[in-house]
Write a structure and sequence with these properties.
By secondary structure, the protein is mostly helical. The protein is 70% helix and 4% strand. The protein has a two-stranded antiparallel sheet. Helix 1 crosses helix 2, helix 2 crosses helix 6 and helix 4 crosses helix 5. The longest helix is centred in the C-terminal third of the chain and has 33 residues.
């Protein structure tokens, strides 16, 4: 699982921050030179890192099948470089190199943002309902009601069904 910290290190190299519970709401931005990334920026970067890991799976698969260095050197010594190359090429052919497709990346990022938006609206709605049920402060209740009123029907329906 990619964490917010992984995305922050790529988005804002050298920035100063602290975070608890892998939660954007608990991200304390300490840096005075770089701006705090938005939650959507982080969601997009996390999706990109996850996709990069998918693309790099071929490297892990190859690595698991390559003989040890000692066995490879032994192969070269006893059978020659061409025999060694043939063995390595068979593994490379079995697990071809993959690259990032910009369209697939954008699709994955857009889907991640859609999921994030849905979950944020869901959390906000549930919290607002809880406030209406328990908080006597009229200003707080009005703010909660505004959240409830602006929540898309699909979110409300997902809770009620």
């Amino acid at each position: 699982m990619i964490r917010i910290a992984d995305a922050l290190l790529e988005l804002r190299p050298g920035a100063e921050w602290s975070i608890d519970n892998n939660s954007y709401s608990q991200l304390d931005w300490l840096d005075t030179k770089q701006t705090k990334p938005t939650e959507e920026e982080l969601v997009r970067k996390i999706a990109e890192i996850e996709y990069q890991e998918e693309v790099n799976e071929y490297q892990r698969q190859r690595s698991a099948e390559y003989p040890s260095y000692a066995d490879q050197f032994d192969k070269i010594f006893h059978e020659g470089v061409d025999a060694w190359k043939a063995d390595i090429q068979a593994i490379k052919d079995k697990y071809p190199k993959a690259t990032i497709d910009a369209d697939v990346l954008k699709e994955k990022q857009d889907k991640a943002v859609d999921n994030w938006t849905y979950n944020k609206q869901l959390r906000d709605y549930v919290n607002a309902v809880a406030i209406l049920e328990s908080d006597p402060d009229e200003e707080t209740r009005a703010a909660a009601q505004a959240i409830i009123d602006s929540t898309p029907n699909s979110i409300v329906d997902s809770i009620n069904n």
